Structures are given as C-alpha cells and as structure tokens.
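Design review, sub-item: ligand-bound model
Attendees: FS, YL, KQ
YL presented the inputs for the flavin mononucleotide complex:
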Amino acid sequence: MSDFTVSSEAQAFSLQEREALYKAIFARRDIRSQFLSKPVAEDSLQRILDAAHHAPSVGFMQPWDFILVRSDAKRQAIKEGFDAANARSAEQFSGERRRHYQRLKLEGIVEAPLGICVTCDPSRTGPVVLGRTIKPEMDNYSAVCAVQNLWLAARAEGLGVGWVSILDDEVLRETLGIPEQIRIIAYLCLGRVSAFSDIPELERKGWLPRRPLELAVHEDGWQATQQQQTEQLLAEYLHEKGYE
Ligand SMILES: Cc1cc2nc3c(=O)[nH]c(=O)nc-3n(C[C@H](O)[C@H](O)[C@H](O)COP(=O)(O)O)c2cc1C
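KQ shared the predicted structure:
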C-alpha cells in the first residue's frame, strides 16, 4: 500500500495559501531597531522552533540545536562582544563609507527579549552522512535552512528576527557554554516589533540596492555580461550616493 494516500491535486495550495506564503517571504525583514521589550508568547515560539526543526537537511541529519537566551546578563555579555567586534569591523571600511557604517544599527541584542543561537553538530548521526560524502559543508547549509524557516515562521507570527553575525564565536562559546566541536551558525534576536519596513533597512539607509532579478538569472550557463552589468549598476549607485 502506498504512503501517499492523498492525490497531488488534493495537496495543492489554494490561492489564499500561496498568497500567504509569498506574503511571509516578501514581508520578512531583518529587524534591529524596532524591537519592543514585550515577551514573546510561548505558543508562538514553539511553532517557530517547530518550523525551524522541519527544515530540509542533508541525509536528514538535522544537525541543528537552538539555544534560547532569555537571561539579561547573558544578552548583555553578548552585546559587549558585538560592540568590540563592531569597532574592529568599522576599521575595514574607509572614508565616508566608514562614517556611514558607524551610523547603522546592526543588532538588537539587548532590546529583543529573546536571543536564539543556532548551532550545527557535524558529528550528528555518525561520521559518514548521506549527501555529505563529497561536500562535507552541507551540514552548515542545512542549519542555515533551519534559520530561514525560523525567520519566515516568525514573520507569519508577527515577530521580528535580526541575524547578528558581527560577533566572535568565542564570545558565544564562553557565554553559552558551547563545546568546541559544535559549530556556531547564527545568533538571532527575536521579539515583537513596532513596525516592519517594506524594504530592507540597508536599502532604506542608502547602503546598497536590491539587484534586479534578471541579472541574477542566467540561461544555460554563466553570462559574464550580467556580472558586468551588476558591477556597473553598483558603481552608479555608490557614485549617486556620494561614494567614490
Ligand atoms: C548570514 C546573514 C548575516 C547577517 N548579519 C547581520 C548583522 O550582523 N547585522 C545586521 O544588522 N544584519 C545582518 N544581516 C541582515 C542583512 O543585513 C539583511 O538580511 C539584508 O540587508 C536584507 O534585508 P532584509 O533581511 O530585511 O530583507 C544578516 C543576514 C544574513 C543572511
């Protein structure tokens, strides 16, 4: 007897369901300035974590874990780690670009009531994993798929997520007691928000534009002209914004 008891037609999404999915995708934002301190409802959080846990994973190894960071003291320690890493990061830009970088708000670690550290255990399910035999880094990509599920589910629940990557792993290892063999994939801030913007904050603040889709799609092979067009658009944008 087949496991597939429902025909594929019956499993199709209705128009409304499709619209809801695309709404979550297009309305998702990276949030750092608009967090409210109100707590996240536990039932929403469980649904979001369950959505993350249903992400695809190489060989179905499910390499992720989610460390919930509710402690004010721990979030404060992580924020201090961010401040140090952010000061070092600013030095990698120069001139007006550095000044612009320094004006950006790139985290909401303390404002958001909840942090979630997503990790990847490369040894989960044993030393040889179906699908990782040639490209072992696929475990990391699987954990990133969990992050994306979490991010979209949070948006559907009306909650904002901000990914903070300007952080040394050591800060998270020490603060959260993460063993050396477990990889750190993401530190996310999660919370209720005052507003979701229609466009990414970095676009709104004139840092970078969204690249047109047609330049990202290549037919039957790599097209160098699309890369050149992308570079030209970017140069024009930066020139327009007063960068050289
Ligand atoms: C892997 C990854 C790391 C990121 N790290 C940071 C970060 O450290 N700080 C920050 O403000 N935003 C971070 N972001 C958010 C991006 O800036 C944001 O996704 C991008 O500007 C597009 O905006 P949107 O997510 O609102 O569509 C990160 C996003 C990803 C996918």
